[in-house]
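#struct-pred
JK: can someone run the complex with adenosine-5'-triphosphate? inputs below
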Amino acid sequence: MRYSQYFIPTLKETPADAEITSHQLMLRAGMIRKLAAGIYNYLPLGLRSVRKVENIVREEMNRAGAIELLMPSVQPAELWQESGRWEQYGKELLRFRDRKESEFCLGPTHEEVITDLVRREVKSYRQMPLNLYQIQSKFRDEIRPRFGLMRGREFIMKDAYSFDTDEKTANISYDKMYRAYLRIFERCGLNFRAVEADTGSIGGSQSHEFMVLAESGEDAIVSCTGCAYAANVEKAESKPIDSAEHADPRPLEHVATPEKRTIDEVSAFLGAPASFMLKTLVFLADDEPVILLLRGNHELNEIKLNNLLGCKKVEMAGDEIVLNVTGAPVGFAGPVGLRAKIIADLAVKGMKNFITGGNARDLHLKNVNLNRDFQITQFADIRNVVHGDLCPRCDTGILEMWRGIEVGHVFKLGTKYSKALKASYLDDGGKERIIFMGCYGIGIGRTVAACIEQNHDQNGISFPLPIAPFHCIISALNMKEENVREASEAIYEQLVSAGVEVLLDDRDERPGFKFKDADLIGIPLRIVVGSKNLSEGKVELKIRNTGEVSLLPLPEAVEKVRSLVAEALKG
Ligand code: ATP
Ligand code: MG
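RT: done, structure tokens with the ligand placed:
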């Protein structure tokens, strides 16, 4: 490809509306342009990287035995009504009517459509295991589309769906996808972790997310220093903390705490660390009050709470209800004397002589003790783990915190959709049974963006070779000089014939200008052709990510590039 005839509209200035590096760089490198909030044009350079990721994904899906098909993005409402998600999905589902007033939506995911297809076509145990996938545009009317391709409204996803006769074989299908995902993200050159994830509203028994480690990541994840345990904080289990305090219970004291409401305020006022205080939260579970107790330095995990209660609606109680339940305004609640369901986090178990609200304005209690001063209904794991917590799996490790970008997600669905849509088959005894399913997604554009978050410097993107738009750029310093032109063309031809993807910068621009663009768009290998070096039969080869420069005779430079590319693409 010749730069002069190509379309790479780079920008000098950082666009003001782009908050994170990958978004800024994808705009500046001329990879994408915004059409509307969360809706982007993929320009040629951006599309090339997107296609690279798609191809890696496609190769690994095929290798794992999945079969590609393509489903429509427009989906009829009836299927979503059948699964129950027409009601549940909320505003992310973009709904509309056609000229006959029939209702449709733009597919945010394809469980309904694929299950409908399979229930019509798969009748016998002999047709399974079956795994079908597509690479296709999804639409989700996200509340806050942002960060470019990272959280778009229209975005490209690979989604695969597995169909099995029973749970055991469904688990095998899941493991195959899990291993394929490891290969995919390794091949993309990413630093990532597979973490246990909450199955959330989708239900099902097990799920893993694939998280690219990056400071800008929207997810918090933990991993153990001593074993392989890793999980999303939404899901990460906490181990009960045994008390370090063996103190005997001291007599209960009332202390005046005028206008001191928050843990921080009371802690500063009484000169006691937050971990000595008991945090008391009033919640409503299907409109019934529930009291939640946590150590002062811990945060509630609402996902764990929701899973524990299994209610339709769980929400924090308003001021009036807090007053009703505790007899005090917000900020002075405590468990002593309360008549309501009380759930205490596991870390509360070991607490002694702690401080709580006194259920009256401007009052707190000191030296409160479990069992002596109040009873609880239940202990449960309802908090977020924190950096330094003991690992719930091994006895030695502690949990470390990271930020992550979720690029892939695998799910055991069980029979949730097959039951709702009545997707069944006949087993070898002729008995009708429900199909077991799994679903497996990868955000293609998000993977490119996440890769840039991990691979850039102050000059621009530094793509790992497997997903770079081109492998090599030839910066011809002055195409008007005959020897430079001829050598550049010759190297270009030789590399292209060797299967290397080359961008020949033949523009009539100053060298500094060309180098700036080459660094910005992140091509991994650069050959600089200038008349001075050429007079000795040499060209310069620069490696983008290490900055390493070598002066090589022409044939050696070509051979070096060829072998570096071949090495990096070994799947
Ligand atoms: P998130 O929690 O980030 O909203 P999700 O859990 O809703 O994502 P899934 O339904 O699991 O996402 O979708 C599968 C994959 O699609 C995700 O792992 C992610 O890589 C990608 N993806 C999801 N939403 C978006 C989006 N708005 N823009 C770009 N990629 C997305
Ligand atoms: Mg997800």
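RT: quick notes.
The two ends are 25 Å apart (CA to CA).
The chain has a mean pLDDT of 96.
JK: thanks, will look after standup
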